Amino acid sequence: MDILGLSSGELGSGASLVRDGALHACAREERFTRQRLDPNPPRFAAEHCLRQAGHPAAGLSGIAVAGDPADRFTRVLTGTLGQGFPLMVPAFVRSMSAWIGHHLWERDSLSRLLDVDPAAIQYRARHRCLSAAAVQGSGVDEAAILVVDTIGEWTTTTIARWKEGGAPEDVERFEYPHSLGLLSAAVAMLLGLRPWEGLAPLWDLAAWGRPTLTSRFRRVLQVHEDGTYQITPGFLRFAELFEPPYGDPWTGAFTDLFGAPRDARRPWPFRAGEAPAVVDTEDQRHADIAASLQVVIEEAMLGLARRAKAKTGAAHLCVAGALAGNASAILRLRREAGFASVHVPADPTGLSAGAALLLAAERGAPLSGRAPQPFGGRAWPAGRDLAAVARMDPMWWQRFRRRGTAPVRDARIEVTPELDDDTLLAQVVADLAAGRIVGWLEGAFESGPGGLAHRVLLADPRDLAVARRLTERVTGAAAFAPTTLLTRPEAVAALVDEPAPTAGWVPLAAHASAAARAAALTAVHADGTLRYLPVDAAVAPRMAALLDRWSASTGAPGLLLADLREAEDPLAASPADALLIFMRTEVDTLVLDQGLVRKELP
Amino acid sequence: MSDTPVGARPRGASLRAIFASASGVLGALGRNRVGWAAPLVAVLLVVAILVAVLALVPAIAPFVYPLL
Predict the structure, then answer these.
(1) In whole angstroms, what is the distance from residue A175 CA to residue A291 CA?
(2) Looking at this predicted complex, what is its ipTM?
(3) What global pTM score does this model have?
(4) Cα distance from A183 to chain B (closest Cα, Å)?
């Protein structure tokens, strides 16, 4: 039984194929179109899934789409009108133009795209999809589920229960406008960040501030003793966040509490891995806002998790939604919520996978917490691209070079199309030890938002200069954001105080041990936590072999991990994407399956 | 466990899909206790159809596109 799951919208569109209840293929549209968070119907991602299925869409057993457009429309309509005239006019015109223009007719456009009967397309509530996605990879057979998100149709937070073999059952729902995710998005906008690309920078920034404004946030977000919460009316205008381009989602009362919005172009003075320099009071105040929000969000999530425990009696907790990426909050849930384990799936906002899994479960295919396939994307052979690079004059690449990076016109490019693993890994370890940045592309790309082990950039975690070069000259990531340490599960016990009991291919956080602070300088965040990702040798054997060889050779506990991409682009998908990053930026060595490309600058 | 194929797109599917979407909206308005908004949605739909038709007229289209 093959079920196709689809999702589209502001978080980016995607498609997944579930075969007999297990995830078989999963990809985001942005990987194919190269448009970050591409919101259009997932034409190429669906094509990839159908290629994996081996038959056209008409042969599928079902098609599930995450998010009911009719219910979303009612929320958008009443939400924008609820702002009152004349404030609602810009958001109303913007929203209605998009909804009447195309969102409402999504069933027809998807039917045309897949050439299937429109009656066969079934919509499932967004939070029910996220609940189904939450249990993937948990390794347990019964759990409470907590979905803490920006907004679905009307639901913003869900508590559910799940038992192996069945679909998740909702226990309690919190509805718009009481949304922890929308509050976080509004604060991120106030601080000049881009919440529509994810809330991670907001949580990363929190570590640099002091929670001096928590009492002000408690006026906006009331967390009750029984674990429920409420957004106080009068501070926020969430309807401004319904459709891009987004307006200011706050009122004068909110800016009276937290000050004027920050200029998005103003650089932050904080640098990961370095002691804070002299910090301007304005910058510090903005970091304090993030730190204060972090405290109240942690309190709210902890209250919800305890409520989930009381309502379901489950021993394990699975968390999904936009706020599942808040590593510090998850760390706190793990310590204080009273569950034996707290699991976050590899893709906590994996709507298309959730939709397909949910429909499959409703039709009798058992929904299981067994390990998912984190690499459900497409694989391309690299041979032809390597041959093209070998013939190309570096002078040709100079026109693509990113501003601020060393010129490549006189570089010597060495291309080795085929190497055995032993030689390849030895060369990569030698390059990393010499302070070179290594790009690594292998097999199929990751289903989730970031690189895990198949589309990654690697560097020596002990070398601050390399870490800075990686951020400034390759990824363009925020300088205050911590990097992640890619390591082996056996090494984790020595690196952190309380290792997480499960590892579901999502970066984890824990307080760094003294040994970690000495050995993985650049991966330890300002708040003393270490972000790490343990590599499972059964799923990514080559990366595990590289880490083993690296540790044996240098004594370092792991490698610095970053996504194989430039700041504004999606994660690299094909070898051509990786080669473009290699030539545009200061990546020094690139592994393409068994091939190796090295750049020697004069 | 149902394993019936979903089938190919039949003729006239667009019209049926559009009606299905429209009735879904009406149902959602009722379900969410905002049935009072139904006339407003009807007006918005008429305006949208008018704008779409005007956008097809070459002489008027340049003035209509900025509204979209």
Answers:
(1) 26
(2) 0.86
(3) 0.93
(4) 23
